Amino acid sequence: MRLLPAFLAGMVLLIAILLLSNRSLQHDLNNAGQQRDALTAQLQQREQLIAALNLQMRQREQAEMALREDLNSAHQVMQGREKQRQRSLHENLQARQWADTGLPDDISRLHQRPAFSSASDYLHWLSAGQLMPDTGQQPHNE
Predict the structure, then answer these.
(1) Helix 93-100 vs helix 3-91: angle between axes, to the nearest 10 degrees?
(2) What share of the chain has pLDDT > 70, as a percent?
(3) What does the alpha-carbon distance between residue 91 and residue 88 come to, in Å, rounded to a whole number?
(4) Where are the alpha helices (DSSP H) in 1-142?
(5) d(CA 95, CA 86)
């Protein structure tokens, strides 16, 4: 008979261990569920971000296509104007002579400038430049 109380005590101890283990497993299961929910939310956010980025990419591609078309039409307009200019120079001797005339030296120097690597270089070049002659003076061609 002594065996029965020891057996019952062992069973109670085993049940207590199983209950504690069950509680620990339930806690782990709850943590895993929370992690799964957090990962699902992150995945949804990433999918939304990918969808937004894809939309932006399509919009940029469309804008690029529109810009290319605008550039192409501007190029065609420029070519048409250049052809018209060439025709007018070819047809009009006075216009051809005017176009072939060189600019005065002072005006030509306005078109000359070094390559700049920054805005401060440009400002330095502007401040160190030569002064324009007084309007009462005639330009000196060199």
Answers:
(1) 120
(2) 88
(3) 5
(4) 3-91, 93-100, 105-110, 119-127
(5) 10
Question: What is the Cβ-side half-sphere exposure of residue 54, based on CA atoms within 13 angstroms?
Answer: 6
Please name the residues in contact with 10: beta carbons below 8 A apart, sequence gap of 6 or more: none
What is the pLDDT confidence band of residue 131, given thresholds at 50, 70 and 90?
Answer: low
Task: Yes or no: say if 113 and 125 are a contact pair by the CB < 8 Å rule.
Answer: yes
Q: What are phi and psi of 111, to 5 degrees?
A: -85, -10
Query: Beta-carbon neighbour count of residue 89 at 10 Å?
Result: 15
Do 104 and 141 meet the contact criterion of CB atoms below 8 Å apart? yes
Judge whether 106 and 133 are in contact, CB under 8 Å. yes
**How far is Cα of residue 140 from the mean position of the Cα atoms in its chain?**
49
Position 138, amino acid: Q
Query: What CA–CA distance (Å, rounded) separates 116 from 138?
Result: 31
15-44: pLDDT as tens digits: 999 999 999 999 999 999 999 999 999 999
